[in-house]
Amino acid sequence: MMQMKKATAISAGLHAAVLVWATLSFSGKALDATPTESLPVDLISEKDFSQVTKGVKKAPKPVEKPKPLVEKKAAEIKPVEDIKPKVSEKPEIKPTADKLPEPPPAPEKKPEQKQAKAADAKPPQPMGEQKPDPIAETLKKDDTPKLSKVAERLPPRRPPQPKQKDFRELAEAALIDQREPRRMAAAGDVLNHDATLGRVDATASRLSQSEIDAFKRRVTDCWSPPVGLDSAQEMEVVFRVLFNRDGSIKRGPDIISGKATASGPVFAESARRAILQCQPYTMLRPEHYDNWKDMELAFTPSDMFR
Amino acid sequence: MNPADVAQSALPLTSSDLSLLTLFWHAHWIVKTVMVGLLVCSVWVWAIAIDKTVLYARTRRAMDRFEQTFWSGESLEELYRSLVSRPTDSMAALFVAAMREWKRSFEASPRSFAGLQMRIDKVMEVTIAREVERLERRLLVLATVGSAGPFVGLFGTVWGIMTSFQSIAASKNTSLAVVAPGIAEALFATAIGLVAAIPATIFYNKFASEVNKQAQRLEGFADEFSAILSRQIDERG
């Protein structure tokens, strides 16, 4: 029995040692949750949200040295300076700008200053169409790859035709912002800390659900069900409607697609009448006009019977 | 607001607070009991393991030494006389028990050969059983800890997770920082259960086979010795 006591003592000692070691060494290391990824969340109203995401024309241009948001991020800011000239000389590479005699004055302060300096140095030089200023020339050279890229993205340039479609395509292409979206320093705007000039692929500022619902409700109210139609029938009609800015209908409703059923035409006609009858649709807000000026509306009997 | 501050304030525990002691200290008392019990089990298992390892090694050496002297041609009488004075174990005990029975039968009544063989066998059987019992003692503890330890630990874990879910429901907050410590301390119970059970199982299997081997060795010696004594009896009878 003496030996058992000794063994117990040894065992207890070993356990104590292991426990002490484990206590000292075992501690959950915090996962590397970088603080930059935590986003401050504000609760804002829908109206504010649409204002935030819409993109502001007066949004500040990238400044020379943006104040670092986080101390650790300081090293990553440098690329902004490299990209900046491309932004400032955007008007030069516009495909539609070839008609313009003179590019509009660059919004950047720096090029202006440079221009002023150049003008001071060589006052007799005329700023004509024949000889564009040397700074713009050099910048154009810098932008040559960029220009080719833009050209790829654009539809092939054709000789100007009176056709409206081509014009529209060109106009849309010109409207599209070709610059890559990039980080910007805080804008100082109360609501929008990261105001940009808007993005091509921005998803915000769509019709909100309440607007769509209000629109549907309105159409449903105006709709008189045709005789012999009930909600159980499976049919769907898709209209295309073009709206004016005041909510009235510019063109349509044109039937785009529909299921081939016996009562389909009757239903489609009644829905068409309802849409025409109820204009103008004032619940569609003019500030979102771009989003609802051209809409495809799908109607099913189950939508309409309420 | 500084994002770093937000991240910092969202975590109720800092990383240094997740040590073993804190885990233990925050646990429910039932989980604590389970943990302490399992820890005691682990200490006991290792104590038994150390004790048995030493015991088996010594027994094996004693058997080797005894067999060497037994087959060296030394007179059994002399061997008996040298062994009977002090307490013996394993093979020596077997030999002494058989010789004592032999001598008693001869000294008491020289004509009682009839049942002598059977009596010696019986005595040796009893001695073997006693020796095996001595070798096997406390091995059942190992078996029990090995099979029940994980379940006990699992019970602690289930209980701990139950309580931590209750507190989650009470605090109405499901962020991982709130959920994680409770689950971590609950899992700690299973960890201790496994730490206790795994060595117990391994040691039990090892020791069981060791006991088996030594018991067979004892039985083999008993048979051989019984054969020798039987020849003696036949010669004298």
Question: What is the structure about, briefly put?
Answer:
Chain A is mainly alpha-helical. Chain A contains 12 helices and 3 strands, in the order αααααααααββααβα.
Describe this structure in words.
The complex is a heterodimer of chains A (306) and B (237). Chain A has 306 residues and is mainly alpha-helical. Among the domains of chain A are: 61-66 and 77-120 and 129-175, no CATH class; 209-304, Fusion Protein Consisting Of Minor Coat Protein, Glycine Rich Linker, Tola, And A His Tag, Chain: A, Domain 2 (2-Layer Sandwich), CATH 3.30.1150.10. Helices cover 42% and strands 8% of the residues of chain A. Chain A has twelve helices and three strands. Chain A has helices at residues 2-25, 46-54, 79-88, 90-93, 109-121, 134-142, 144-153, 164-175, 209-222, 264-277, 289-292, 301-304, and strands at 237-243, 249-258, 294-299. Chain A has a three-stranded antiparallel β-sheet. In chain A, helix 9 crosses helix 10 (264-277). Chain A is flat, with a radius of gyration of 32 Å. Chain B is rod-shaped. Chain B contains eight helices and no strands. By secondary structure, chain B is an all-alpha fold. Chain B has one domain (25-236). Residues 1-16 of chain B have low confidence and may be disordered. In chain B, helix 3 runs antiparallel to helix 7 (139-171), helix 5 packs antiparallel against helix 6 and helix 6 (116-136) runs antiparallel to helix 8. Chain B starts with a helix and ends with a helix.
